[in-house]
Amino acid sequence: MSRKAVALSKIREALLETYAANDRMKQLLFDHIDARAWRAEPPGLNRRGGRTIAAVFAHMHNNRLVWLKHSAPHLIVP
Nearest 5°: CA angle at 46, between 43 and 48? Predict the structure, then answer.
């Protein structure tokens, strides 16, 4: 195996491990957060400021999709 192939393999492995760790942390949060908290207004802020937890997660998800579309256009992103 060439050095380039080994390097790409290590990068791929690190990315997969990072994705798996990130996904596990999100799943732990999903499992333990009270259902009412998802859409609760942030405390201490008026209606114009802050986002609900659901809005934060949706925003992060959409940003990741945009990043994937730009960085890996060959992948099919739902």
Answer: 120
CB 62 within 8 A of CB 51: no
Distance set, CA 36 to CA 31, 41, 44, 52, 65 (Å): 13, 10, 17, 11, 27
CB of 56 closer than 8 Å to CB of 64? no
**Tokens matching residue 4:** 């380039």
Digit-by-digit pLDDT tens for the chain (78 residues) are 899 999 999 998 998 899 889 889 988 988 999 999 999 988 876 666 788 989 988 998 888 888 888 888 887 776
Domain ranges for the chain, please list them: 3-71
The token pair that represents 64 in the structure block: 């990741």
Nearest to 51 by CA among 61, 40, 62, 35: 40
